[in-house]
């Protein structure tokens, strides 16, 4: 269940589905430098998320023409992560989060994944916007928890609009600044400074 803890190896694990992973300056993997990842699934066996701030120049219309009208600006594909870059994950924001819609799987609040095999015309009244990701970010059992313990990620609450911002390049500093205090100061960390 989302948000509840599970026991793993004798210790409790907080499930983080629907939360943001914000890369710390200590994270040196180029796949995740200054990224913001929305976790769409987190369970005992691992975690899956999509990078929210890596827009490509490939228009959604070029790949999924029928879905183009529902795509939020910028209406391009996003690099969801290094795993299976030929696959697509689609996030949607519902207009009425309480209504059940075929093909929609809730992640948090009005945001969830949508099955791209569903006819987009049938969803036009229910969906306030989509974002399409090529590939995803994945972690095996315990791997993400270890990366967090090592200081690679901040785990922060997501706002419903985070996955659909008009200026995705600004998302990393924006999420950090809204935390206030020392966390806000990290938003100004120079990108080319190495941490030891």
How would you portray this structure in words?
By secondary structure, this protein is mostly beta strands. Helices cover 12% and strands 38% of the residues. Strands 3, 4, 5, 6, 7, 8, 9, 10, 11 and 12 form a 10-stranded mixed β-sheet that branches. The protein has a two-stranded antiparallel ribbon with strand order 1-2. The N and C termini lie far apart (38 Å). The N terminus is likely disordered.
Quaternary organisation of the protein chains: single chain
Q: How much helix, percentage-wise, in residues?
A: 10-25%
Residue fraction in strands: 35-45%
- Estimated structural class: mainly beta
Specify Rg, calculated over alpha carbons: 17 Å
Q: Termini separation (Å)? A: 38 Å
**Shape by Cα distribution:** globular
**Number of separate helices:** 4
> Which parts are unreliable, with pLDDT below 50 for 5 consecutive residues or more?
1-13
Mean pLDDT: 89
The largest sheet, given as strand count, sense and whether it forms a barrel, is:
10 strands, mixed
> Total strand count, please?
12
**Topology order in helix (H) and strand (E) letters:** EEEEEEHEEEEEHEHH
């Amino acid at each position: 269940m989302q948000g509840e803890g599970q026991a793993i190896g004798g210790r409790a694990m907080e499930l983080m589905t629907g939360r943001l992973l914000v890369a710390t300056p200590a994270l040196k993997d180029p796949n995740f430098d200054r990224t913001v990842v929305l976790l769409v699934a987190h369970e005992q066996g691992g975690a899956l998320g999509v990078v929210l701030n890596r827009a490509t120049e490939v228009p959604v219309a070029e790949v999924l023409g029928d879905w183009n009208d529902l795509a939020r600006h910028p209406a391009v594909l996003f690099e969801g992560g290094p795993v299976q870059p030929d696959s697509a994950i689609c996030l949607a924001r519902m207009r009425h989060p309480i209504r059940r819609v075929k093909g929609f799987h809730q992640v948090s609040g009005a945001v969830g994944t949508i099955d791209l095999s569903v006819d987009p015309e049938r969803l036009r009244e229910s969906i306030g916007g989509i974002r399409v990701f090529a590939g995803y970010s994945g972690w095996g059992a315990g791997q993400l928890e270890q990366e967090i313990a090592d200081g690679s990620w901040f785990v922060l609450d997501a706002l419903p609009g985070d996955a659909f911002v008009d200026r995705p390049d600004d998302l990393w500093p924006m999420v950090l600044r809204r935390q206030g205090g020392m966390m806000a100061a990290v938003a100004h960390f120079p990108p080319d400074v190495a941490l030891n």
